[in-house]
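call fold(seq) -> C-alpha cells
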Amino acid sequence: MTATRVLRQLGMDTQYVLLGFPLGLIAVVLSMTLFWLGVGLTVLWVGLPILTGIFLLARGLAVMERARVGPVLGGRLPHVHYKRAVGRSLWRRVVTPLGDGQNWLDLLHAMFRFIPSTIAFCFVLTWWVGAVGGLTIMLWDWSIPRGPEAHDLPWLLGLGDGVGVRYTFYMACGLFFALTLYPVVRGMAIMETAFARLLLSRVSDLREQVAQAELARDTARSQKNAAVSAEAVALRKLERDIHDGPQQRLIRLAMDLGRAEQQFTKDPDAARATVTEALTQTRETLDELRALSRGIAPPILVDRGLPAALTAVAGRCTVPVELIVPGIERLDPAVESAAYFVVAESLTNVAKHSQATEAKVTVRELAGRLLIEVADDGVGGASVAKGSGLAGLEDRVHAAGGEFEVFSAAGEGTAIRVALPV
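ret:
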C-alpha cells in the first residue's frame, strides 16, 4: 500500500471514528428517550405512533451509517429491504414497522452504538494527541508555565536532567504513537464498522443468501421439469416417427415376403418382382432408421465433434444453409448434444414450414457460453406455444441450463437464438 493510500485511509478512518462519537451520543439519547416514552404510552394508544416514529428515526440513522461505512470498508453495505405497508390504511402504516425485524436491529444499533463509538473515540483521540503532541513538543513546550517540581520528572524516570532529555523523552513517545497510529486507528474503525455491519446488514445478507438458495432450487426444479418434458416430447416424436415410417414399411415387407412365398410355385417371375420390391423396402427402412438414429446420438457427433456434425446436418437440409462455426473445440457431451439437437430441429422446421429460400446457422463460444443462432428468410410467424416443435426445443435448452429466444414476426423470417453454458 502506497503512502498516499495510507494517509487517505487514515484520514477517512479518523473522521469516521471522531464523527461517530457525537452521532452515537445523539442516537442513544433520542432512541432511548422516545422508545421508553412510546412504550409507556402504549396503554393509551398514543405510544404506537411514537414507536413508529422512533423506528423511522433509527432507520434514517442506519441509512446514514451504511453510507459512512463505505469509505472505511471500500464499498457501501448492501441495500436493505424493509417491509412495506399493504394498502393505504393508517393503522397498517403504523403497525407494519413494528413487525419488521430489521427495524428492531436498527433501533438496537441506535441505542448501543455509543459503546464501540466511545471506545474507538478514546483510542483514536489519544493516539492522535500523543503523536502530534510528542513530535511537536519544541513548538509548544515553552508556552507551558512550570514550577520547580516539574524539573524533577526526568530525574524520577532515571533520564537525568535538562530540557534536551525532556524533549527526547516526549519525542520518543510521540514517535511511538505516530508509528502505531495507522494500525490503532484502522483497528478502531474496523471494530466500530463490525458492530454496524452485524446489526445493519448481516440479517439482510442472510436473507439474500436464503433468497439466492431458493432461486437456485427453483431453477434446478424448472430445469428438471424441462428435462422430463423434453425427454417425453422426444420419446413421443420417436414413437410417432417409428410408427409412421419403419414400422409401416416392415409390415409391408412382411406382407410382400408372404405373397412372394405363395407366388414361387405358381408364378416365379412375379415372386422375383415381389422380392425385388421387398429389397427396395428394406433399403428404405434402413435409411429411415439411420435418419432416426442421427436425431438420437449421431456417430459423427461422438467421433468428430460438433462442427463436423453440424456440417452434415446443414448438408442434408433441403434449403441452402450458410454455416459459420469458427474454431469450436470439443465440449461437454451434454452441451454438444443439446446444440446439435437445436440446430437439427431448427433446420427441419425451416425445411418443413418456413418456405425459406436460404438459412444461416452461426455457432460461437463467448464468455463461457455457446451462442447459437438459426435464422431464415421465410414467412415467419413461428410460436413457442405448447404442442409445437419449438416448445420441445425450449424445454431441452432449459434442461441444459440455457436460454432460448424466438424472433419471428410475420413476413420477416424466423431467428432462434440459444445460449448454452459451457
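The first strand starts at residue 321 and ends at 324.
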